Amino acid sequence: MELPSLRDLYDLGAAQQPTWPDASEVDRVVDRLRRNPPLVFAGECDDLKAKLAAVTRGEAFLLQGGDCAETLEGATADNVRAKLRVLLQMAVVLTYAASVPVVKVGRLAGQYAKPRSSDMETREGVTLPAYRGDAVNGYDFTTESRVPDPQRLLDVYNSSAATLNLVRAFVTGGYADLRQVHTWNTDFVRSSPVGKRYERMAGDIDRALTFMKAIGADPEEFHRVDFHSSHEALVLEYEHALTRIDSRTELPYDVSAHFLWIGERTRQLGGAHVELMSRIQNPIGVKLGPTTTPDDAIALAQRLNPLNEPGRLTFITRMGAGRIRTVLPELVEKVTAAGVQVAWVCDPMHGNTFEASSGYKTRRFEDVMEEVQGFFDVHRELGTWPGGLHVELTGDNVTECVGGGESLLEEDLSHRYESVCDPRLNRVQSLELAFLVADMLSQVAEPEL
Ligand SMILES: O=C[C@H](O)[C@H](O)COP(=O)(O)O
Ligand SMILES: C=C(OP(=O)(O)O)C(=O)O
Ligand SMILES: [Mn+2]
């Protein structure tokens, strides 16, 4: 199958692209990227698609999470381990409490490019191009740093390769062994109420594992987990250069990650991002904000998944706590009535951002939970499956979102605000979210008789 050229894609209209200052340097970088080895294998993308087909059928739940924006500086072993650890903890909570298989996908090893609401940023009377992620320009607020630099795409490739290599080692090399379930709970979490709840659950799991082992059952699944990478497919040069023809099927796969999604700002039906994603075989997602009409969603599904293959397409809704109950029902109802096979996933972050009086971008934990509750309620009323959760989180003890069990206040935001883009749930808030969602999920998975 012929892929459209980059030029063809740009001719369709490409939103949110960097204005690279030197086209010939971009060409050189793209040429180098095209010769770099794939970061993931096509067969792994197929495996994830099969798992997402189970999500679509209501037999599994997707947990997708990580930073809003990864940074090159932040691609350290400690950081990657911390993110993986919190995702593993959340996954085990969801699996154990709701007895539903959890498909684990990180927003990592490639989540380096950001769409922005505004092209420019003004601080104290100085206006510069907005930061668009480490794939494009630097976060420092200086003229030099904000100039888009295509060499960064090579840095992103290398950093993604190193991150993925470490994640693969962790998940297959013993770190993700269920016997480690206690050690994922580090000290600062253990002392919190949610950490204590986790400890009790980990104790139950330990006893169950000891029993299983005693009766001679010790399956491979206890010792390793499947973990997949994902990011927003935003910078066309990068995604196009990493789209390759799979030797088994002779079909194109975007081998920069297992799962790619199209953002709320780049999902124009005739636009470049939808066109490129329509050509690849990976499982893909589309973010749907509150202005999405049922016709938009149905048209996107027809365009992106013309064969209506379960697992190929995930709709990630991000409506906001105040709108989910009014906007989501009609969307889900009409898309379902049209016979569209899709996994419905809730992003309770992007519709709930606001600016604190101190100027920090933040989110209320309570709004996040309210959106998730609305998502579950709407799906329960319609008899459809609430297929998963897409969250911005970190494994560290940051202070970026307010509320939660530790009652973080707006005054606390400055203590440890490290995100270069959107505010993330910290370790404790993430675990709290997992327990609350596990309660919701267990009610859907085991309806009262
Ligand atoms: O992560 C999502 C977007 O890139 C982000 O919310 C945009 O933020 P902005 O509104 O500050 O540009
Ligand atoms: C840009 C993002 O979200 P959205 O496209 O939903 O605004 C994101 O997930 O970081
Ligand atoms: Mn974000």
From TrEMBL:
<keyword id="KW-0808">Transferase</keyword>
<dbReference type="GO" id="GO:0003849">
    <property type="term" value="F:3-deoxy-7-phosphoheptulonate synthase activity"/>
</dbReference>
<keyword id="KW-0057">Aromatic amino acid biosynthesis</keyword>
<comment type="similarity">
    <text>Belongs to the class-II DAHP synthase family.</text>
</comment>
<protein>
    <recommendedName>
        <fullName>Phospho-2-dehydro-3-deoxyheptonate aldolase</fullName>
        <ecNumber>2.5.1.54</ecNumber>
    </recommendedName>
</protein>
<keyword id="KW-0028">Amino-acid biosynthesis</keyword>
<comment type="pathway">
    <text>Metabolic intermediate biosynthesis; chorismate biosynthesis; chorismate from D-erythrose 4-phosphate and phosphoenolpyruvate: step 1/7.</text>
</comment>
<dbReference type="InterPro" id="IPR002480">
    <property type="entry name" value="DAHP_synth_2"/>
</dbReference>
<dbReference type="InterPro" id="IPR013785">
    <property type="entry name" value="Aldolase_TIM"/>
</dbReference>
<dbReference type="Pfam" id="PF01474">
    <property type="entry name" value="DAHP_synth_2"/>
</dbReference>
